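Entry type: protein chain
Record version: 2
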Amino acid sequence: RCHTPQSWLVKNIKPLHEQRGFPLVGAHGTADCRQCHQSASQYRFDQINTECYTCHKTEYRATTQPNHTKAGYSTDCNLCHNMVGQSWSATGNGFEHGFFPLVGGHNLACNACHTGQTVMQKINPDCKSCHASEYTRAISAFPAHLTKIAKFACNECHSANGWQAVRFKPHDAWFGIYSGNHKGAWDRCIDCHNNNSSYQANCKRCHD
């Protein structure tokens, strides 16, 4: 089952595992076989349970941020974790988070947003629920956030790559892509939009 007439060396260990539905990726690719196959001391490599919890119950029980046992998290570990890399990935990679993509600045450890010790509770996806300080700063610099801009969602101008990267599609449609000296951070908007009134796209207004 493992050896060939040509050599006692087993060269197809990874294909053997893949055929049985447990690819040796990440930390499992460098693990000592005997860590999982306890029967190896009898020169047997019995097929074992491939559920993560079978080998990783110690890690599950020892985790406190958040406490998996108290929270009653599923023991199907790969719902949130993956095996890529030399350790567990707790950044949401591998977890279906499509309703709120974990990209840019949102690629954080789960408990950075889900601060409770209960099952990953639903939290308010509205930007201001987490970014109140940034919103307050924006109002101070550009009061139109409370009037003309109030009807727009934060992500219509800002992105998860940072508050400074501002793009507003309706603006691009009539003023063109931000470029040259017209390209600036979000707080540069007030260079042209210095009050709450509508802005007329007239070069002379700024460049007289």
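Comment: The two ends are 85 Å apart (CA to CA).
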